[in-house]
Amino acid sequence: MRREEVPKFNDRKTCNLQLATPPSNSQLSTFSLPRYNNPVSTYYHSLAPFRELFRTGMPVLMYHKLGPRPRGVRLKGLYVAEKLFARQLAELRDAGFVTPPLDQALPVTKRSAPTVLLTFDDGFVNALRYGLPLLDEFKFRAVQFLVADRIGGINEWDRPKGEVMEPLMDDAQIRDWLAAGHEIGSHTCTHPFLTQLSPAQAREEITASRKKLEDKFGRPVEHFCYPYGDCNEAVRDLIVAAGYKTAFTTEAGVNTPADSPFALKRYMARYPSRNLKSFWTQPRARMR
Ligand SMILES: [Zn+2]
User: Fold this and answer.
1) In angstroms, what is the span from residue 194 Cα to ligand 1's centroid?
2) Is residue 223 helix, strand or coil?
3) CB–CB of 71/128 below 8 Å?
4) What is the CATH number of domain 38-281?
5) Which of 88, 108, 213, 266 is the right S-S partner for 62, CB 3.0 to 4.6 Å?
6) CA of 112 to the centre of ligand 1 (A)
7) Strands 117-122 and 60-63
8) How far, in Å, from the CA of 187 to the mean position of ligand 1?
């Protein structure tokens, strides 16, 4: 891929799908700020700062990779050590949080028991290896958003950024994930920036990924996750037309019944750091 073809992260459209008209720059700044204007709240490390906020709606945690971080990794924040993952699950369990199946958890309603959704993007083998035993131990359910044409492959979409390649779950490993009581959703066919594709290409990524996953694993795939959190109204309309019930973004915040089910917010779970070098948080960090 030539350099000028690599999309710039700060060109990303924000996923504010409540707006009827395209927002101005000043509106974008306002709408993109996290609800809790607190530096700790753009990502999740431990429950303490979120304890009250998480009871006001449906929090969703976003994970990518678990376990040891190989040398040379660029986006270090995408790895959560096994020990930290165990601590995060223990805290949630001790606070009474439950993880219902997606079709019970969504759409978001007011509920008595505190609820959280655990999501993993991309389908990495390390999430299965280190995550499955701990999810089982703590009796939590999770969803993997899979890249349908990269199953059993590697995260090729990260190669232009010089990222370390990691294996992705193959068919048998995804079946193990499902057999353990977890769920899958679609994360497109090839992990593109959807807003930068033609409408026909975007439609193909959205609809074909669903069909391929349903055909292969024999169960409904009704939930979608935007690669890089990249979406706009046209992409959202394609998601709706493809029959998905929900779509998850990378915007931080807790979801309430008033929010669009096609722009569900998530907190990125990671190790504690003041240095918000995640490519998603960069534009937001600059706006403060
Ligand atoms: Zn992804």
Assistant:
1) 12
2) strand
3) no
4) 3.20.20.370
5) 266
6) 32
7) parallel
8) 7
